[in-house]
Structure formats: C-alpha cells, structure tokens
User: Which sequence fits this backbone?
C-alpha cells in the first residue's frame, strides 16, 4: 500500500510527487457527535510511515476526538480508520504509544514502576520495562526520580515520565496529544529534538497542537482542523505553496511612471510596497524599475508561512482562536 | 532511515502485535492487586471488621453475664416460718433433677411474723424482686404475681408443695442415658443449619468485600489514567483485571481473618461456644462432605464475588464522583440483601419453582447452590451451575465494559469494517475510499 501525497483542500488538490511509503494511519469520513453536537465532521487523514505529522487547530476543533478515534479509544459514529492496515487499533496495541492530552499516572506509583507499567500495557515484560525505564530516565537526567512516587514529582517531571512510559516499548507509531502543552521553552526544545530523533529511527509521530510554530518546524505533513472539519490535509510545503510568495520592495522614489509597472494588487505600507510574486518572476519588473529610475533600496521575496496558509485555509476566525489558545498559557 | 535494532524489535512486534485479553487483564490485575494490598487503606480495611467482632464479643460476654445475673428467678415465700423451711427443703431436693424448671425460693422478710402481710399489695407496690410470692400453706398454696409469672410458676410450686405434703418421702430413680449420633429428621435439620450458616458467611463476605469494587474505577477516571488503559487494551480486559485483582485481595482478607479467627478460637474456644451458642467443632456435616463443601464454597464465593463485582464495577464506573459512588452504596447493599433473601427463603424448599429461580438467577445462584451442596449429594449440578455462573460473569463483564465505552467514553458504533467477515472488505473499502490513494489533481 503506497501513498500518493496529494494534498486535499477546499481549493482543489495540489499535485506533489507520489509518496512510496506505506500508510501508518488512514482515516476516511470520521464523524463523531456528542449529545447531538458534531465534534468531528468527516475527517480524512493519511499519514505515511516514518513521517512527523501534525494535527493543527484551535481548542475544541476536534483534534483530540480525532486522535481518540484513530487509536480506538472511542469508535466513530461514521467512517473508517486504519492503523498499519488494521481497522481495530487494539489488534496492534504493542505497536502504538500514546500520550493523552490530560496526563494521567497513578500518584502512588514510583516513576520507574509507572514507566514499566505503561510498557507492560503494551506487552513489554515488567523487568525489561524497568531496565529500559532506567535507561530512559538516565538519558533525560531524571535517574534520581526513578524511586520517587509520581505525587512527589513536579508537573514537568511527571509529564516527562509519562512521555517516557509512552516510548518505553519502542512503538512504531507515537501519538501525542498536545505534547507541548505545559512545558517551558527548554523542555519544548527537548521534546522537539526527541520527536525528530524518533522520526530518524523510522517511528511515525503524529501530534496535535494549536501552536503553528511546532508544526511548521517539525512536520512534513499537517491536517488543519477547524470546527470538526479538515479543510486541508497534506504536506506543509504544499500548504505554504497555496499562497503565492510576497515581494517586498523599498525604493528611494515614492512616485513616478515606474509605479505603473507594479502589479494591480500592490499595497503600500510606509516605505514598502508589497505584492504577490508575479508568475513571470521579478526580472521584467526589475528592468522597468531600473529604467524608471525608481532607486531600488531593497527587494526581497518572502515565502508564505504555515500561519498564512492556516489563515487562508481555516479562515481569520480560526486563526485568531488559535493565537488566543497559544497565548492562553497552553503553549 | 530506520535503526537496525528497531527493525528486529518491530519484526518481533509484528509477529505478535497485541496482548491477548487474558494477558491484558493480568497486567491490570497485577497492578491493582499490589497497589491495593500495599496501601494503608487495605490495612484499615482488614482491621475494620475486627472492631465490630471485638465489640460484639465484649457486648455478648457482658450481656451474657448480665443476663445470667438477672435471670436468677426468685419466688418469695410468705407462709409460716415452718412451711417456708419445708418448701425450701423440698425445692432443694427437686432442683438437681428438674434444674431450671424449679425457681429459687426465698423467704419474704417483710412477711415474717406479720399476720397482716398483704402479698398482693406488696407486689402491686413493686416492692422486693420476686417473680411471684407464694402464700397459704403447702396443702393450699396461692401464687401471686402477674398473669404470666403466676401461670409460669404455678406448676413448679405445686410440685414443690406436693413434695412437702407427701406422706412418704419421694423416691427419684436415676435414669441411664444412651445417645445416638443422628436421626433422619435431625440430619436434615442439621444440614439446613449448615446451609444457613454457609450462606450467611458467604453473604457477609461478599457484602464486605464486593463493595470495594464500587469505587474501583474512580481512581482511573479521576486521574485520567483510563485514557491510557483504553488506548492500550480492550475495556473488558480492564474490567476483568480489576475484578480478579479485587477477588485476590478478598482472598487475602479472608485468609487474614480466617487465621485470626482460628487463633482466637484456639485461645478462647469455650468463650466462643458460650457466646455464639454454637459448637463449631461438632457442626453437622454437609451432604457432599466437608472437603468438597469447602472447595465448592470457595468456588461459589468466587462466582458470587465476580457476579456482584462485575455489576458493582459497572455501576461504579458510571458514577462521576466519589459522592455518587457513596450514594449508590445503599441501593447496592439492598440489592445484595434481596439476592441473599431469595436464596435463603428457598433453603428448605429444594426443587420448588422459587428455588429453581434462585438457582438460575445469576446473582443468587451461588448462594442457592451452596445450600444445595449442604443438603444434597448430587455433584454434576454443581459443575453445570459453575459453568452457568461463569458464562454470566463473562456476559456481565462484556456488557459492563460496552456500557462504559458507550455511556462514559461516548464511543460510537463505526470505525471498523463490520461487513468484512461476512462479505469481504473490498466492497466497504470501495465505498469508504480507504486504502485507495487520492487521485492526483491539478
């Protein structure tokens, strides 16, 4: 089973080279309602094996519900999902690691036992789980916390212990629900490094976030989710390519015949002109500017970011909500 | 780029990508068992029932002493001094043969030498501490007391007086005794007593222990651990694991209480027999014999525990807060009582419709069948009953876990290819588009 990584969006499909990798996750038409309200409304997602994939959307958009359906914690009302080709994710429970949004550990359990227990749930013998747990704790400078109970740990440490428990059985697929939530900047950086290192080892990582920068820095593919729908699912590159690059021009002369050469949708902000990169490139325009003696001080071509793509795809309201969520201390 | 150690590891995972339901249940059971056993709460739980037993024992002992003291019945004598003495002599002669049937007699001091002594007025004034007062003469005694007391002591007083007035001394022969171990009638009634006792013990144990299961999922729900469990293993394995863990904990509890009880018995056997009025050493044997009866008792206790426990686990899992769990405790206890009463009511009525209902109704079945083991020798029916009960345990666990997923976790009914097994999955795949690469587009 291979995957052609064409990106699907409201404005049609963007052609990208076919992805030869088999799919780790595929879902079609997932629908889930709670008390008559549609939380998820026809979600389609395809995640190739070995990819880092982000589910991006504001709080309440349906990210967690989608992940819970993909993992088989709950079944959808409609639609089909497959994980490594299995439509019942419990059938391949040992292959998956999951960090839920609301962290949960037994408070009276020692850290090392908590890690080993989470491994045991995924089929790792307890003794092996303890051994690997110690290695992981040591690697993350938490060896001194091994024999401390969860209630004795700080929130960040407990969060790390749970993450290590998610990884202790060396899963092929790691699903992280809002993993950056509650972490300080240093630990966010460490987590990003950990996710990259997992992907380097061939592990498929899928995580949800409402912070665009994490998705932009880490992911090769994203699903943008808003109001329970997925208006875009595909590569980050393709999402950014949906918006033409912007040209930023600064000239010594403010007026002159040369301004007629600027594209019609040019907007002026202070000393700068902004306009979409013309299809023919900037060379013909440059020639006219030089001939018109515009006095070019600077000219740069700026590629659209994922934030711009998000605004374009999900709309201003969803983007504003996303920013509010991120600013709300849940970064 | 993958790592070689991951490739080998994943090949191993691919070969066995999931835990079996039993393996998954074992992971949960092991964690819960250890967590409960080494918690301080369990220590209190173990000690808890000993307090009522201790208090009950003390109260029983004191009560018994008080009863003994207050039950010394004295009948006053208000005859002439000579008749009083003759009556007391006659009473002392009869007492060894009639034991408690004759009352203690005591001269009423106020009547001595008082020709005007009015026994009726004396009694009505509630003076003295006499059950009744005897006046008149041994030839014509008069018993004065409340209707009940006068009736009660009339006969003994007449016999004592007859002994006084007898012209020749009464000769009382010593009868020899021969005892038989049992008779048909007494064997049946003894076995019924055994059945009642066994049912009662099993009921008390399940009531004491199965209640623990009610709040068993509260910690997981409160700490959101349920998400991790539900993502990793099927919910029925979670339920099954929790049930068996608590059953294991119950056996530990029973072992501890049993050991303490045995220790107490060896120290104070006589006291226990006196207080409980039961000679445990000579309890009537059940129909199937003690070894099989005890084995069946363990099996039926396990089934009763698992059946009630699976129900309680489900009920408790539906609760959102500890307060809700506490509120549920009362109706749950009532349910237990009703089940027990159903089984107990049919004890003497083997084969009746109601008894068959008690045997078939899953929750009362272990109690009714334990009674049958005490009363009847048939063995095959126990094998059938245990299978029947085990099937119901499985059904209740499955139903409970499904209800939990549906009601608490709000799970839907799709997600997997239901028609796959019947029709092949190609048609569904075509419909859903799953497994089909999206069409390249411009």
Assistant:
């Amino acid at each position: 089973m291979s995957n052609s990584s064409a990106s699907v969006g409201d404005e049609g499909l963007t052609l990208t080279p076919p992805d030869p990798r088999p799919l780790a996750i595929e879902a079609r038409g997932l629908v889930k309602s709670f008390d008559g309200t549609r939380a998820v409304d026809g979600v389609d997602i395809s995640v190739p094996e070995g990819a880092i994939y982000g589910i991006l959307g504001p709080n309440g958009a349906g990210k967690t519900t989608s992940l819970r359906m993909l993992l088989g914690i709950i079944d959808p009302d409609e639609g089909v999902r497959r994980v490594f080709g299995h439509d019942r994710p419990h059938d391949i429970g040992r292959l998956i690691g999951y960090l839920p949004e609301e962290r949960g550990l037994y408070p009276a359990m020692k850290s090392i036992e908590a890690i080993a227990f989470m491994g045991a749930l995924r089929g790792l013998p307890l003794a092996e789980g303890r051994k690997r747990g110690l290695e992981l704790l040591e690697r993350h400078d938490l060896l001194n916390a091994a024999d401390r109970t969860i209630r004795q740990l700080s929130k960040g440490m407990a969060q790390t212990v749970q993450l290590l428990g998610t990884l202790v059985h060396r899963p092929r697929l790691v699903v992280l629900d809002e993993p950056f939530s509650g972490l300080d900047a240093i630990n966010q950086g460490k987590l990003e490094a950990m996710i990259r290192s997992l992907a380097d080892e061939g592990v498929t990582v899928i995580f949800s976030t409402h912070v665009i920068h994490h998705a932009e820095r880490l992911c090769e593919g994203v699903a943008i989710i808003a109001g329970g729908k997925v208006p875009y699912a595909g590569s980050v590159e393709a999402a950014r390519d949906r918006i033409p690059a912007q040209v930023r021009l600064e000239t010594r002369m403010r007026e002159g015949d040369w301004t007629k050469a600027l594209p019609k949708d040019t907007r002026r902000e202070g000393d700068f002109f902004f306009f979409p990169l013309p299809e023919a490139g900037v060379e013909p325009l440059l020639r006219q500017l030089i001939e018109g003696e515009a006095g070019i001080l600077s000219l740069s071509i700026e590629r659209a970011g994922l934030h711009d793509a998000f605004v374009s795809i999900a709309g201003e309201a969803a983007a504003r909500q996303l920013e509010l969520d991120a600013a709300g201390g849940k970064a | 780029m993958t790592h070689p150690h991951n490739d080998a590891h994943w090949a191993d995972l691919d070969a066995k990508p999931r835990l079996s339901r039993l393996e998954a249940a074992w992971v949960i059971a092991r964690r819960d068992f250890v967590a409960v056993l080494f918690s301080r709460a369990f220590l209190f739980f173990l000690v808890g029932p000993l307090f009522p037993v201790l208090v009950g024992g003390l109260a029983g002992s004191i009560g018994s002493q008080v009863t003994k003291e207050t039950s010394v019945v004295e009948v006053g004598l208000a005859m002439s001094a000579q008749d009083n003495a003759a009556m007391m002599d006659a009473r002392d002669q009869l007492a060894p043969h009639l034991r408690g049937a004759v009352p203690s007699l005591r001269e009423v001091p106020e009547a001595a030498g008082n020709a005007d002594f009015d026994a009726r007025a004396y009694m009505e004034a509630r003076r003295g501490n006499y059950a009744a007062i005897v006046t008149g003469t041994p030839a014509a005694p008069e018993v004065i007391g409340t209707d009940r007391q006068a009736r009660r002591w009339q006969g003994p007083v007449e016999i004592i007086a007859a002994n006084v007035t007898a012209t020749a001394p009464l000769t009382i022969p010593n009868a020899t005794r021969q005892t038989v171990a049992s008779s048909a009638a007494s064997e049946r009634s003894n076995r019924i007593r055994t059945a009642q006792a066994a049912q009662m013990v099993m009921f008390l144990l399940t009531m004491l222990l199965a209640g623990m299961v009610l709040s068993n999922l509260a910690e997981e729900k409160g700490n959101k651990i349920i998400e991790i469990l539900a993502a990793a293993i099927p919910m029925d394995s979670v339920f099954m694991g929790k049930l068996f863990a608590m059953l294991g904990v119950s056996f530990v509890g029973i072992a501890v209480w049993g050991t303490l009880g045995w220790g107490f018995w060896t120290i104070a056997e006589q006291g226990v027999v006196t207080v409980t009025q039961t000679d445990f050493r000579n309890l009537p044997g059940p129909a199937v014999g003690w070894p099989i009866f005890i084995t069946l008792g363990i099996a039926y206790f396990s089934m009763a525990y698992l059946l009630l426990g699976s129900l309680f686990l489900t009920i408790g899992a539906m609760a959102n807060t500890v307060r809700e769990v506490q509120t549920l405790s009362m109706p749950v206890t009532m349910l237990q009582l009703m089940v027990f009463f159903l089984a107990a009511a049919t004890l003497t009525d083997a084969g009746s419709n109601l008894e068959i209902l008690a045997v078939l109704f899953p929750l009362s079945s272990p109690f009714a069948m334990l009674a049958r083991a005490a009363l009847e020798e048939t063995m095959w029916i126990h094998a059938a009953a245990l299978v029947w009960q085990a099937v119901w345990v499985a059904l209740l666990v499955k139903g409970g876990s499904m209800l939990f997923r549906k009601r608490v976790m709000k799970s839907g009914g799709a997600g997997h290819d239901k028609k796959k097994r019947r029709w092949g999955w190609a048609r569904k795949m075509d419909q859903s588009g799953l497994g089909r690469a999206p069409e390249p587009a411009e």
